[in-house]
Amino acid sequence: MSHTAVPRPSASVEASPLDAALDTFPKLVLDNAQRMPGRPAIREKDYGIWQTYTWRDYADRAHAIALGLASLGFARGDKIAIVGDNRPQLYWAMLASQALGGVPVPLYQDSIEREMQYVVEHAEARFAVVEDQEQVDKLLSVRAQCPKLEHVIYDDPRGLGRYRDAGLLSLADLEARGRAFGAAHPDYVEAEVARGAAGDLAIILYTSGTTGQPKGTMLSHRNLLATAKAAIAQEGLTANEEVLAYLPMAWAGDHMFSYAQSIVAGFTTNCPESAATVLHDLREIGPTYFFAPPRIWEAILTSVTIRIEDASAPKRAMVRFFLAVARRVEERRLARRPVPPVDRLLYALGQVLVYGPLRDNLGMRRIRIAYTAGEAISPELLGFYRSLGVNVKQVYGMTESSALVSIQRDGDVKLDTVGTPLPGVEVRISDAGEVLYRSPGVFVGYYKNPAATGETLDGGWVHSGDAGVLDRDGHLKIIDRARDVGRLADGTLFAPKYLENKLKFSPFIKEAVCVGAGRPYVAALVNLDLGSVGGWAERRNLAYTSYTDLSQKREVQDLIGAEVARVNASLRDDEALRGAEIRRFLLLHKELDPDDQEITRTRKVRRGFIAEKYAPLIEALYSDAEYVKVEVQVTYEDGRTGTVRAEVRICAPDAAVAGASRR
Amino acid sequence: MTGGEPLLSVQGISVAFGAVQALAGVSLDIARGEIVAIIGPNGAGKTTLLNVISGFYHPYEGRILFQGRDRTRLRPFEVASLGIARTFQNVALFKGMSVLDNIMTGRLLKMRGSFLLDAAWWGPARRQELEHRAFVERIIDFLEIQAIRKTPAGRLPYGLQKRVELARALAAEPTLLLLDEPMAGMNVEEKEDMCRFILDVHGDFGTTIALIEHDMSVVMDVSDRVAVLDYGRKIADGTPDAVRADPAVMDAYLGVAHV
Question: Which of A108, A248, A489, A552 is the most exposed place for a label (fewest CB within 10 A)?
Answer without folding.
Answer: A489
